[in-house]
Amino acid sequence: MNEVFDMHEKLTGALRDRNLAWDFLKEFAAYWGRPLRPGDGYAAEELAAAEQRLGTTLPTALREAYLLLGRRTDLTSNHDTLLGPDALYVHDGALVYRAENQGAAFWGMLLTDLGQDDPATVMRPDLADKSQERWEPWEPSLSSACVSMVMSELVVRYDGFTDHAEPDDEHLDLAALFQELPGVTPELRWFGGPDVLLREMDGAFLDVRARTEEALDAVREAITADWLNG
C-alpha cells in the first residue's frame, strides 16, 4: 500500500461517483488498518435470499457494498450497526439498513427509490411521541453514505490511536489547523492532517483517529481539551 493517501482528492471523487467510492473504501481500509480481502463481504446467495424475503430487488449500490465489506464489522459496526442482509426490514415506506447503537435513530432508503442504482438515504429519529417521527432526507446517495459510515466507524474504534473531546475553545477554528475534507452527512465536518483524521459533530465534539501515537499526541497538543484517553 502506497503510504501517500491524499484524503481530500480521493474523497472528493468518492462522493461524486459510486465506483470511485468503492475504490476509496479499498484504499481507506488498507491505509488505516487491514486491506479488504475476498470473504469480507456477503455472498450473492445471501443477498438473493434477502431479496426473496423482502419481495424487492436491492439497489445496486447496496448490493455492491454488502459484497465488498458487509462482514467487516470493524469498518461498519463499531458504534452504529450496518444490518446484515437477513436483518433488513421495511418500516413506514423505507428499507432500513443501519441502526444507531442505542436505537435512537435509523437509516434507510425510501421504497419508491429502490429502483435507482444509488438512491439517496433517509434518517428517522426514535422519538417518545411516535406521531412526530418522519423519514428525513439525509445523504444524497447510498455510496456516499457508505463512505461516511466507514469513516465514522473508524474514528470511534476502541482499539488503536483514538481519542475524543469537546475543545475548551468554543470558537476553535479547526480549518486553521487541519485540512477540511469534503463532507456528506449533515451535522458532521471532517478534517485531515499528517496521519490523522478528525470528525467534528454538531459543531463541538471531536473524535480523532491517528496512525501513530506521535500523530495523536500532536492533535492533543494543538487542541486544548479534556481528552478522554489523553
Gap from first CA to last CA: 30 Å
Strand composition percent: 15-25%
- β-strand number: 11
- Rg value: 18 Å
CATH superfamily (homologous) name of the largest domain:
SMI1/KNR4-like
Overall geometric form: globular
- CATH top level assignment of the largest domain: Alpha Beta
Portion in helices:
25-40%
Low-confidence stretches: none
Mean pLDDT: 94
CATH architecture annotation of the largest domain: 3-Layer(aba) Sandwich
Structural class: alpha+beta
Q: Which fold name is given in CATH as the topology of the largest domain?
A: SMI1/KNR4-like
The number of helices is 7
Largest sheet: 6 strands, antiparallel
Whole-number tally of structural domains: 2
Order of helices and strands: HHHHHEEEEEEHEEEEEH
Task: Compile the SSE list and pairings.
Layout: H1 7-14, H2 18-32, H3 44-54, H4 60-69, H5 73-76, E1 81-82, E2 89-91, E3 94-99, E4 105-110, E5 122-125, E6 136-137, H6 142-155, E7 161-165, E8 179-181, E9 188-193, E10 196-201, E11 205-210, H7 213-222
Antiparallel strand pairs: 1-3, 2-3, 3-4, 4-5, 5-6, 7-11, 8-9, 9-10, 10-11
Helix pairs in contact: 1-2, 2-6
Describe this structure in words.
This protein has seven helices and eleven strands. It is of the alpha+beta class. The strands form two sheets. Strands 1, 2, 3, 4, 5 and 6 form a six-stranded antiparallel sheet that branches. It has a five-stranded antiparallel sheet with strand order 7-11-10-9-8, with helices on both faces. The protein is globular, with a radius of gyration of 18 Å.
Summarize the structure.
The protein is an alpha+beta fold.
